[in-house]
Design brief:
alpha/beta, homodimer, about 260 residues
C-alpha cells in the first residue's frame, strides 16, 4: 500500500525539464505543491498553472510552511541558491546527478538528494513508476521523508552514496546523451542525402530493445566488431571532408574492436 | 492481399545472424527453402533444421532448381563466392549494406540486393513486418521477384540505389553499432563500481522512445548541450587513467556542443 501523501506540502525550485515532470508527477500523486520558483516569472507560471501552485520569482516570497523543498535547477546555480535559502528543519533536496549533497548543509539540518535517473523534456510526459529514484540523506529523518516520497511515485527506489550517484550520472551520459547524439549524427547524414530518418527507427528501437535481456557487449554488431577494414575505409571515404566525424568514427570503431 | 509465395523455391547461402532470421521468416511466410549452404557444416545444419532445408557445405551440391539464391555471408567473402556461382536466369541477391550489386553480374543475368535494415542476432527472433527492406535490381524481371518477396514479409519496402544503400548503412553504424557501444561503455563503468546495468535500462528505453516522434537533435540532454564545463571536467576526472574513454568523452561532447 502506498503511504498517504496528503499531508505533504512541497515547494519546487526550478521550472526546467526535470522540475516540470517531477512536479507534475508529485501533483498527480496527491501532493500539494505550494509554489514554483523560477527567476523567470513566465517559466514559473507555466509549471505552476499545471500543478495548481503559485508562481514566484522572488525568493523573499518563499513560503516557509512546506515540509519539503525540491531544488531542480542547473548544477552550477545550486550553490548560490543554497546560500540564499535558510530553512530550519524542513527537508531540502536537489535533483542533480553530480553535485554533492553537502552543498545544502547550511540551508537546513535535513538535506539530501532526490535523483531520478531518466532523461526529461518539458513536452513529453514520463511514467515515473519504473524510473530508478536514487536518494541520499544526511540523517534518518530525512531518509524517511525521501523514501516515502520516492515510493509514492516509483517502484524502483535506491539508496545510494554520492560517489555512486556520480558514477551513475557518468554512465548515463554515455548510455543516453551520447547514444542520442549518435542518432543525431545518423539523422544528419541521411538528411544530407535526402533520405528519411524514419528508415532508421525500427533499427534504433531494436538496438535499445535487445539490451533489456542481453549484455550489450554481446549484442554488438557492425563492421568494427567484425574487423571489416574494407567497409570501415569505405565509410570514412563517404564521410568526406568531415574530419570531426571521421575522428569519432575511427575512435569508436577502434574501441569496439578491442 | 499478399501474393502467393508457394511456387518460390529459395537457397540460402550463409548461416549467420541475418541468414538465420531471414531464412526463418521466409520459411514461415510459406517459401520452400531447398538448401542452406555454409562452409561450416554444423552452422548450415543448425539453420537448415529450423527451416526444413538440406544443409550443404559443398558448392557442387548446390541445387540449380531454385528460383532465388540469397547470399548472406561476410562482405569480403561475397566476391570469391560469386566467382564460383554460375547460374543462368535464376535471381541471385546479396544482403550487404555496402557491397555493389554488380559483384554478382557474372553469377546470373538477374541479380540484385535485398538489404533488410536491422540488427540481427541468431538467438533473437525479429519481426520483419516493420523492417525497411531495401531492394536494388539489375532489371525489371528481378525487381518483380524481389518486390514480391520483400512485400510478403515487410510492409516497408524501398527501392533504393547502391549509393543510397551505402549512406543508409553508414548512418546505421552510428545509430545502431555506435549507440550500442555507448551502452557497453556505460555497463562497463557501472560494473567497475559494482553497480547494476539494470539501473540504466529505463533511461535507454526512453532515449530510444523519444526519437520516434521527435528530432533527436532537439531531444539532446546532458552536460555537453548545456555547456556545463564543471560537470564534464568532473566526468573526465572520474574516468581516471582511461585515456581512450576520455578522448571519446571529449570528442563526442565537443561535437554535441557545436
Amino acid at each position: 500500500m502506498k503511504p498517504s501523501v496528503s499531508s505533504q506540502k512541497i515547494v519546487i525550485i526550478g521550472a526546467g525539464n526535470l522540475a516540470t515532470q517531477l512536479g507534475s508527477t508529485l501533483y498527480q500523486a496527491g501532493y500539494s505543491i505550494l509554489q514554483v520558483y523560477s527567476p523567470t516569472k513566465k517559466s514559473a507560471a507555466t509549471l505552476a498553472k499545471k500543478i495548481n501552485a503559485t508562481a514566484i520569482n522572488d525568493l523573499k516570497k518563499l513560503d516557509p510552511s512546506a515540509s519539503l523543498y525540491i531544488i531542480s535547477i542547473k548544477d552550477d546555480a545550486i550553490a548560490a541558491f543554497a546560500k540564499e535559502l535558510k530553512l530550519t528543519d524542513q527537508v531540502v533536496v536537489h535533483t542533480s546527478g553530480t553535485v554533492d549533497a553537502a552543498i545544502l548543509k547550511n540551508s537546513s539540518e535535513n538535506y539530501g538528494v532526490f535523483y531520478p535517473l531518466q532523461t526529461f523534456s518539458k513536452s513529453k510526459p514520463v511514467d515515473f513508476s519504473n524510473i530508478p529514484v536514487c536518494i541520499e540523506s544526511v540523517n534518518k529523518a530525512t531518509a524517511k521523508v525521501l523514501q516515502r516520497m520516492a515510493k509514492s511515485i516509483s517502484n524502483n527506489v535506491q539508496e545510494i552514496s554520492g560517489e555512486q550517484r556520480k558514477i551513475l550520472h557518468l554512465s548515463a551520459v554515455f548510455a543516453c546523451n551520447f547514444s542520442n547524439h549518435m542518432y543525431t549524427i545518423a539523422a544528419s547524414i541521411l538528411s544530407q542525402h535526402r533520405l528519411s530518418f524514419d528508415l532508421l527507427k525500427p533499427l534504433i528501437a531494436e538496438t535499445a530493445e535487445k539490451i533489456k535481456l542481453n549484455d550489450p557487449a554481446k549484442m554488438q554488431t557492425g563492421p568494427a566488431i567484425r574487423k571489416d577494414v574494407k567497409t570501415m575505409q569505405a565509410h570514412l571515404k563517404l564521410l568526406g571532408r568531415d574530419n570531426e566525424l571521421k575522428t569519432i568514427y575511427k575512435l569508436v570503431s577502434e574501441h569496439i574492436a578491442k
